[in-house]
């Protein structure tokens, strides 16, 4: 059984990894570290290899297997896609087709979810109810609409109740839908871009830990599978960074001291107005595409700050993730855009509401069972039935003492308020962080696709222990 919290036990981690982050320490009598040692500065950041569509089609074969990989200078057994802990990025355009053949060699079974993408949840498309057993091959076909929004998505296992163990073991990668550049000013359409994929791994002996996962245990945070890589930028240069939390369970609160993140998409939904922040909280499953400008010459730590998810949750410590090195001839900083997506977007705040639902997240006191509306997940039970081409309003209430990362498949939503405070959304989202003992009100427009799908907490330990419900979209 996978345990949600650090209360159950501390994990003894192999000394071979060194400079390991101690994540979470709410246990009585245990000191809470405010910062972990900075890992040694690593190699230049490596963007993942890419599979890119040609003539409107991307054909990919993914082999799922347990094998040894090189991580932090050591050989560890991991769960891999095509032999890699940081697998290839899938890259295509709106309107393309993805033909993906998955060959499975891991137990007990697996499947594939393409997170955040507006695509059919039925048949051999984004169907998370499929089980691909060891030795089996399954052929997925995804036909994406031309209206698919550009930005950063990701793919990962959704084989309930083994999603947390498989994603923690390494089974997650990036998806890029091209097209963001056309929204940028002409002088920013050919800037350097980087994937900044945030993954973490725990260690057990000579392997990445996949069972008895404790969210608050010691973990190794990586960027693109690297420990503290260096990111090169010139003073004043503008780059596009694709920030994605593709870990199983943990939160990030990113900061690049002296610089701001200029957000152009949230959850791969282009914003109507560019907004900036010196810190970004990225709950499990969430993504931001941001513009970053190089600071004065010298190194700066891209770091995650200390973050606490509540009395029943976890305390994540401050930790350096990468070293941004500003060097070379200075550039005149570009004038950054203030608006981004010129296409009209329907404001769901003005839409007629076809139905309203209250969705309650809760858990037992031991942190071993997690519920939606008082029930654990049952794939044979439909919990919410929604009609195509209508807008619904959902009040998502958190009755627990820790935050949860609320996620819906197939269609994005517009956040209307958080804890009763109106939220002026600049984009749609597929993930929103629920405050402890708080609530979010969202509106969701069901378009294009019918079928059975799910909504859940994207802290995958919580999902696997019951915090998921079935949504059926009907005509």
Automatic annotation (TrEMBL):
Taxonomy, superkingdom: Bacteria
Pfam family, one: Cu-oxidase
Signal peptide: 1-25
Cross-referenced InterPro entries: Cu-oxidase-like_N (IPR011707), Cu-oxidase_2nd (IPR001117), Cu-oxidase_C (IPR011706), Cu-oxidase_fam (IPR045087), Cu_oxidase_Cu_BS (IPR002355), Cupredoxin (IPR008972)
GO molecular function terms attached to this record: copper ion binding; oxidoreductase activity
Keywords: Metal-binding, Oxidoreductase, Signal
Record carries keyword Repeat: no
Residues covered by the Plastocyanin-like domain: 65-178, 219-293, 365-472
The protein's name in its UniProt record: Multicopper oxidase putative signal peptide
Upper lineage: Bacteria, Bacillati, Actinomycetota, Actinomycetes, Frankiales
């Amino acid at each position: 059984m996978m345990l949600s919290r650090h209360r159950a036990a501390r994990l003894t981690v192999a000394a071979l990894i060194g400079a390991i982050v101690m994540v979470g320490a709410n246990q009585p009598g245990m000191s809470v570290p405010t910062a972990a040692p900075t890992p040694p500065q690593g190699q230049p950041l490596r963007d993942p290899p890419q599979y890119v569509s040609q003539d409107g089609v991307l054909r990919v074969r993914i082999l799922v297997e347990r094998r040894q990989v090189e991580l932090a200078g050591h050989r560890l057994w991991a769960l891999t896609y095509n032999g890699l802990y940081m697998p290839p990025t899938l890259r295509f355009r709106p309107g393309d087709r993805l033909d993906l053949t998955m060959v499975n060699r891991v137990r007990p079974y697996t499947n594939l979810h393409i997170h955040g993408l507006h695509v059919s949840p039925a048949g051999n498309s984004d169907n998370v109810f499929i089980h691909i057993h060891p030795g089996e091959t399954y052929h997925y076909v995804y036909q994406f609409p031309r209206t698919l929004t550009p930005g950063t998505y990701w793919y990962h296992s959704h084989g309930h109740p083994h999603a947390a163990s498989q994603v923690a073991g390494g089974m997650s990668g990036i998806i890029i839908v091209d097209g963001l550049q056309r929204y940028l000013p002409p002088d920013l359409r050919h800037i350097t871009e980087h994937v900044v994929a945030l993954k973490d791994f725990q260690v057990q002996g000579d392997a990445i830990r996949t069972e008895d996962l404790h969210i608050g245990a010691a973990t190794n945070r990586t960027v693109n599978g690297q420990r503290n890589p260096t990111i090169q930028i010139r003073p004043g240069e503008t780059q596009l960074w694709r920030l994605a939390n593709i870990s199983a369970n943990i939160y990030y609160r990113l900061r690049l001291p002296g610089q701001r993140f200029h957000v152009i998409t949230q959850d791969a939904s282009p914003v109507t107005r560019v907004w900036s922040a010196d810190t970004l909280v990225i709950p499990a499953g969430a993504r931001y595409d941001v513009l970053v400008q190089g600071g004065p010459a010298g190194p700066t730590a891209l770091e995650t700050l200390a973050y606490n998810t509540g009395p029943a949750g976890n305390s994540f410590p401050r930790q350096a993730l990468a070293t941004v090195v500003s060097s070379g001839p200075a550039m005149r900083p570009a004038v950054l855009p203030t608006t981004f997506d010129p296409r009209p977007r329907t404001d769901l705040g003005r839409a007629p509401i076809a139905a309203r639902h209250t969705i309650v997240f809760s858990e037992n006191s031991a942190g071993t069972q997690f519920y939606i509306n008082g029930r654990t997940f049952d794939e044979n039970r439909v919990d919410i039935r929604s009609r195509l081409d209508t807008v619904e309003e959902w009040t998502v209430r958190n009755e627990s003492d820790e935050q949860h990362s609320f996620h819906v498949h197939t269609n994005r939503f517009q956040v209307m308020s958080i804890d009763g405070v109106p939220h002026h959304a600049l984009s749609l989202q597929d993930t929103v962080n629920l405050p402890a003992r708080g609530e979010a009100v969202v509106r969701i427009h069901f378009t294009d696709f019918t079928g059975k799908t799910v909504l859940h907490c994207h802290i995958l330990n919580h999902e696997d222990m019951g915090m998921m419900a079935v949504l059926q979209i009907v005509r």
